[in-house]
């Protein structure tokens, strides 16, 4: 009996170590997203942002969010050039979507409004009712880059993949003449906040959301980092 328990504990231990060992001996490659990645990228984001997405899309969440994601990439293929994909042995284990702003921007993209048309009625009404808040938090300065989505597969977290993606994001932003990179992270995402601090970001603003704001009833920090050549790791 004791032997069975020891065996089980050992198997559990080695199962937990497996992703770590796999990554330790292999290179993480970073490349740009292609059309063939759309479904895998969606599945990765869905798993990472499940709580936000289920709230917006209600019970149809997986298929609906897949359609919206696929639509937004297919209708604007340029967007995929701003999505970094981390792979190990050609398997996607992480993604990072970026935007770059040449001028001051508050405006919503056509994608944003197109997405809303797919929403269930209640989510659509909430989104339209809180459009002023979206506009407020969406303000970008000239020369600002933003991390719009960052997700690492749950089995590959804590192994440096997120840091690699953010470092590539810095490089890309600098190539596009940006002098600052920023993102929004909800108050309760303590792990991600700590992670961004480790990657050189600091909180510069706090947005308190209205209770009925679609993407959460708490608020978010804007975190940012200056992109001077000597600050890129
Ligand atoms: C946040 C996330 C992208 C981090 O990616 P990751 O690959 O696990 O992070 P890394 O392994 O590169 O970690 C880099 C550093 O941050 C630290 N870190 C990472 N996650 C952390 C956590 N949850 N709590 C505290 N520190 C953390 C690591 O210890 C490491 O520190 P070190 O440089 O001193 O060794 C990943 O956890 C994730 O996908 N989370 C779900 C989606 C999400 O919340 N995205 C952010 C939305 S704003």
Automatic annotation (TrEMBL):
Task: Pinpoint the N-acetyltransferase domain residues.
Answer: 28-228
User: What keywords are annotated for this sequence in UniProt?
Assistant: Acyltransferase, Transferase
What Pfam family does this protein match (any one)? Acetyltransf_1
Q: Does the record carry Transferase as a key word?
A: yes
InterPro entries recorded for this chain?
A: Acyl_CoA_acyltransferase, GNAT_dom, YpeA/RimI_acetyltransf
Q: Which GO terms describe its molecular function?
A: acyltransferase activity, transferring groups other than amino-acyl groups
Q: Please identify the protein, giving its name as recorded.
A: DgyrCDS14698
